[in-house]
Predict the structure.
Amino acid sequence: MTFQSVNPATGEVLETFEEMAPEALTRTLERADAASREWRRWPVAERAERLRAAGRLLRERKDTYARTMALEMGKPLAQGVGEAEKCAWVCDYYAEHGAAFLADEPRPSDASRSYIRFEALGPVLAIMPWNFPFWQVFRFAAPALVAGNAGILKHAPNVPRCAIAIEDVFQDAGFPNGLFRAVFLSNAAAGGVIADERVRAVTLTGSDRAGSQVAEQAGRHLKKTVLELGGSDPFIVLEDADLERAATTAAEARLINSGQSCIAAKRFIVVERVAERFVERFTSEMRARRVGDPLDPATQIGPQARLDLRENLQRQVQESVKRGARLILGGELPAGRGAFYPPTVLVAVEPGMPAFDQETFGPVAAVIRAKDEADAIRIANTSPYGLGAAVWTGDTKRGERVACELEAGSVFVNGVVKSDPRLPFGGVKRSGYGRELSEFGLREFVNVKTVWVA
């Protein structure tokens, strides 16, 4: 199997990589296991210093990494710079707080002394996606490494240059040789890595289909898993919301990363009383965003990461229209090369349409009318996914009350759903299980050990 780096704006093949040979993979796993046994003995403060060094390198090289992301998966340059800076932030965060999160916790019992220790598990296999090719990796790697684990990265096949760049960051920051490695593997070969006794846990960010497959394989071998899967996030607009601000933010929430985000708002659920006014403002905001070459600093929306992804998005739009949705913006494939897709707005969207039932991974917004607050909550929860949600209202207490009724891992009141190193991140239902970030993310890949002393 070969892995190609392809510029989605032009279709140009940039570079080709070969799959790792079985013998090389075996050596990689052996070194990761040995490195993790050494690394976990390092004082947390020294592990944290290496993580701070990684953060410094990310900031120094942010423009280079932004260009790599732009060329390899179409991310606009400014967003790539922001992604590299966010990776540096998560490194700094765990460097600062890792020792406190890993500190022994005394607990009362019938012993003279009893406490809880948090000890590294060993090598963790990370199966990562292409849409945030640096951030998705670092939000796993920073807590896992500071806790004393090793990382084996199986990145998405279309971002091999990003995978190599990330490995270089950890190598150049002074982490032990072999502690973090990027491997180019087929899905079949990845199954063998999951089964390998040296690998102690698996984390995956991807589709619910991929999550089911990995969970099945990991379960067969009794490996701990964390799954961050798809989302069809609701963006609820109640009748007392600031419509101007809500519409502007809605466009931002739908179009971040050219619409290719698991926590992008996808279903815009608006109460009848303000639906017409919201749709008018929202459509205007969507229309105003500039689509173009991701290497152009003025571009706000780049191409979709691959042509097949664009084709699937178009199929979802066309099928939704065929079933009764109305297209009021976009929805037409542009002429010319590249995987570009325009900002698109569908109204009269209902259950049974792909735009309602499925995750639309691109700049397509589905607007759904609700009778009132209760109906909006019902519609929001009528989804197999439960990753993020947003509520817009002039009454924050009301927003908090609605937030408590929504089936999601994160709910933002009058704000854009986003990941933050200080807050746990993950989903429910078909959006997966387990948490990343904060102390909860760090403790996913440790042995929570009870020590009891007579």
Summary: The chain has a mean pLDDT of 98. The longest strand covers residues 113-120.
